[in-house]
Amino acid sequence: MGIRVAVAGASGYAGGELLRLIAGHPEFDLVAATAHSQAGRPVAAVHPQLSGLNLMLTATEPAELADADLVFLALPHGQSGALAAQLPAGTKVVDLGADHRLADAAAWELYYNSAHAGTWTYGLPELPGQRERIAAADRVASTGCYAVATVLALAPLLRSGIAAADDVVVVAASGTSGAGKNAKTHLLGSEVMGDLSPYKVGAHQHVPEIKQATGALSLSFTPILAPMPRGILATVTARPLGGADPREVLQAAYADSPFVHVLPEDVWPHTAATAGSNSAHLQATFDVDSGRIIVVSAIDNLGKGAAGQAVQNANLMYGLPETTGLSVFGVAP
Question: Which spans are transmembrane here (predicted)?
Fold first, then answer.
């Protein structure tokens, strides 16, 4: 018997991707999967891609999760805190939601309009010293999807002092799975196809997380809904401080990170290349007109942006190689 694992919120897109990764993980045994409205249905009826996974979805209650060694929480923002507080003290927990990411309670209340549930160890292993902190933790808050794409592109620039922390602009496009699985008119195929649309302009909830993780002092962030099911492409620009090559800075920062790939010169990231993987693809240059640093980042929002990141964190929490059960390679076409 391996590590007993449960997933709360298993009926959503991130929850389904978690189930897929856990089912193929050599050290994890999936023992429970919970949901709200889908409780009582077989997993394969909700996630046809998981045909053959003989497990029933049960109600999202602490008792359904209590026998697991490790619980993944793939719940809507604001719902993880109360459930996590009812789990046994010895249970390791990875929260894919936002409830425990922010250290600043005022920032949480401003962007999420609810009481702050507390701060856990931040689950981005590629930040300096973070692998060791995650390995020592029993409760880990995984990153937001836009946040990881932006933080990986920006953090080394600010840490090395080659970019101004008070002048950062991000424009990022995400596939529709980032908006969740609940039926919404603006996410219907006929509404999304052939269209790009901004949303939460000037007030996206990942802004305080990105600032916290990178040290950015001022951040203009514009998210865009793209007509594709999964993937994020983030374009990050910053005012340079000195003439250091940002690509070389990124290469040095991620030389020992198996999932972060700084692409060869003149090769630019695109979302399809990361689909199905836990990898992030980066490229950097200077704008020939403005002189600003430009970094482009691509991830699978359900992989490195959600389920894959969560499994990577869990691997570290159990002393496993962080790549266990995860692919660095995407799928194509």
Answer: none
